[in-house]
Structure formats: C-alpha cells, structure tokens
Amino acid sequence: MPKGTNQKFKLYRLAQIMLEQTDDEHFITMPEIKEELARYDITADRKSIYYTVDAIHNAISENKKIQFQYYQWNVKKEMELRRDGAWYHISPWGLSWDDENYYLVGFDSDAGEIRHYRVDKMLHIRMSDEPREGKEHFRKLDMADYAKKSFGMFGGKEQTVKLLVDNSLAGVIIDRFGKEVMMIPADQENFTVNVTVMVSSVFLGWVFSLGERVKILGPEEVAEKMREEGERLVRQYQRRQQQ
C-alpha cells in the first residue's frame, strides 16, 4: 500500500496503539510510539499530533495538569484562538477516538466538570506544576458511553441537505464537515452550505441543538421531518405537564 495511503490512517493507528498498550498504570514513550507507527509505514513529524499525545501521556504519568491554547475556524476558514488566546488549564484523564478525530478527556476545575478537546486543535501544550484534579469525576465516568453521547452523530439515510447557518457557527460546520465544505454567503449574517449526512433523529437533534442559528432549507422531506420532530417534542412535554 502506498505510503500516502497509510498516512490517512495515522490517527486510527495511533488510537489503536494507545488502546492496546496503555492504561491507567502503563504508558508508552514517544520513541515507542514512533516504532509502532513505523510498522504501518507511518512517520511521526515533530510538529504533528503525536507529540501532543506524548505530552498528554507524560502529564498523566506525572499526575500533572496541562496548559494549552485552543483554536477554531472562522467564516473565512482562518484559524483563530478561542477565548482570545487565553490558556486552558486542564487535568488530563484520558484520550478518546471518535469519527476520525482524537480527543483529550479532562477535568476543567473552573467549570467543575469533565470536558473534551480535539487534540489536533490544541496548540503550545505544556505540563503544569499543579497536580491533577477531578479524580472522583473521572472514576465515575464510562469513557465509551461518554464518547457515544458527546461525539456520535450520524446514522440513517444518506442525503445532501442544504442549511442556512449563522456566521458564528462557521467553526462548528468546518469541524463537522471539513475545511473543504463550500460556505456561500446568504447575507451579512448568514451563509448556506450543502452537506451530505445520514438523516436520522440524531442528525435532527444536532440541528435542533444549534437553535435558531441553523435552518434546514431542503430537501423539503428533511425539513418536514424536522417539523414533525418539533411537533412530537411539543406533544411529549405537554403530556408530561398534564400528568
């Protein structure tokens, strides 16, 4: 298999290596990661995601928090730092693989809850002197169930759906459908985008979760499914209030 083809599976292979060779008490070093990846003809660039993963595992093994900056995409498809470039201070507790992306699962002490971050969007990661927090929260966490609830999205009939989207959600669209997605300005505040998705109640729920900032323009049958789902929810909660 050509080397370029193998490179496409690098994140999958990395997740596989971490799953098979690490746990709460056993860690793998960067040289060992590179050696394992070499078996699949995959190289680890010093600027790549592998070094971020290595830094995360080092912090976990040292029981330390990590600091990093986090970026998102804007409507011009430009990288911009979230929180105006402020540093995130997170206690790393695990890594999760979902939908071709690798995620850090950690405890945010300020928010007092478990949160996840896409590893490829983390910049300038470094280990803190502060000990990790949130052990009790993570001990109660089912990683498989957490990943399923937090990241899973599609399943159903495949269709191309046209959406009207608020500019503020450009990053959400790019993160979900890729930077190659074509976003066409509709007016000064919105753009339209055609996306190929598996239309199901899960997809409709994703659209619903974005509120009035996203509207399904077509096909009409998909828009009708959304209306039916909205009416079903109204009926469901009306019944609960009457009980």
From TrEMBL:
Domain of life: Bacteria
Originating species: Candidatus Mediterraneibacter tabaqchaliae
All copies of domain WYL, residue ranges: 53-127
Protein name: WYL domain-containing protein
Domain WCX: 159-233
